[in-house]
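User: We ran a pulldown and think these components assemble together. Before we commit to crystallization trials, I'd like a predicted model of the whole complex to look at. Sequences follow.
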Amino acid sequence: MTLAAASHGFLTPSGVEIAFLLVGLVTLGAAVVTVTTKQLVHAALWLVVALGGIAVEYLLLTAEFIAWVQVLIYVGSVVVLLLFGLMLTKAPIGRSPDADSGNRWAALLVAVASAAVLVWVVVDAFRASWIDLDGAVQGSTEVSGRSLFQHWVLPFEALSVLLLAALVGAIVLSRKTGEGSQETGRAAAPVRREGQR
Amino acid sequence: MHLAYPAVLAVLLFCVGLYGVLARRNAILVLMSVELMLNAVNLNLVAFDVWLRDALHAGQALTLFTIAVAAAEIGIGLAIVLLVYRNRGSSDVDKLTDLAERPTEDEQAQPQSQQQAEAAA
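Assistant: Here's a predicted model for the assembly, 318 residues in total across the polymer chains.
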């Protein structure tokens, strides 16, 4: 606390800290609206704001490659998938009064209690820790690519196999078992008969 | 930058996601809350990677892996939700109680199992 606090004042935040704080407030507000709004499609749109805010936080932490990956994957595809899911399950447009379940107050209690404990622990643990953002860029595309393809090649390739498995699994799950496919019909027939009994 | 800023933001986002997972009724809204929790963890990973100046950049590599796994998870999760909706006409997680233990069945099942235990003895 001695040397660190001398060079970085806690009550005189730097410009990056102020920007991080403002974007963080927007992100947190959007996240809160996402989990509390009664309109299901609005929840997905507020999720875009929250995820985009996190991308800006990555940029402020000098991890620019991850910021663009976040924009591409989350804002670009995951939210679109969620919107498609909402439409395919015929989610009601407008306010739906039963968006929250009955155990909302228990959930609020759990969330507030865990937030209090975690904030206390984190602030107490990292009171005198400072991120040095002035040195070499930590997360440019060159740095990330070098580390990814020098040290993390094997996990990277294993991840592509996982993505392939997830793709095949999603197709198999969401495919309608038509009458044309005899094999699945034969496999499903005993189950159906047991269900009728 | 003080390390507490990203760490506290990640904690708060995680707890908002936790509230959403516990309190939401629609399965797709639960998936959105899971995404918020995953993003909180990603923010922590990036912040600690930049703080530690890791030579291997393990935090950022793990963040990329988490993003890919989250994309796979959302694909599979939405497929399951669509399947449930197609079979039951509702994506309400409160109604998916097939595996729940109902108290009436428990009371009926307990004497039988006691009788079986006595017979076995």
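Confidence is low (pLDDT under 50) at residues 1-6, 180-197 of chain A. That may be worth checking against your pulldown data before setting up trials.

User: Thanks, that helps.
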